[in-house]
Amino acid sequence: LFDEKDCWDQHLGLCALSWCCPSIQWASTLSSDRVRLVGSFWVALGVAAIGHHELSNLTVGIAHVIFVSVAVYYRQKLREKYGLEQGTPETLTQDLFVWCFCYCCAAAQEARQVNYVRIAQTSLVPFSAELRLQRTAAPPDAEDNSEDPDAVSP
């Protein structure tokens, strides 16, 4: 994902929000129109606030573990959306460590990725099946002539 170096120099507002209110930054990133990984900002904010802050002490850290798992899942989805390596033990470990030990940095990285990098166009195929079907389908006139082998074309 987007490198965290020079973050404060170039994107002060984004980094300040990630440092002071990482739950708001995370929810804003996942619900942005560019990626739309979560349908609602408020749902993502609720998951982050409850899982990361409110219930962590009450559940002796279990809520925090659940939230980190959710955050790593969506970080992997971001990697997939941007055509980056994802789903490997190495990327899962990296994402787990960044969310466990510096969640402000994780929120800033993800926000910078979404705000400043174009999404990879992995779904575009030059000659998809639909195009091939259109190209190989016979025109309507050719079907009529193929039934009568003695018919002469004008």
TrEMBL record:
<protein>
    <submittedName>
        <fullName>Uncharacterized protein</fullName>
    </submittedName>
</protein>
<keyword id="KW-0472">Membrane</keyword>
<feature type="transmembrane region" description="Helical">
    <location>
        <begin position="58"/>
        <end position="74"/>
    </location>
</feature>
<keyword id="KW-0812">Transmembrane</keyword>
<dbReference type="Pfam" id="PF04749">
    <property type="entry name" value="PLAC8"/>
</dbReference>
<dbReference type="InterPro" id="IPR006461">
    <property type="entry name" value="PLAC_motif_containing"/>
</dbReference>
<keyword id="KW-1133">Transmembrane helix</keyword>
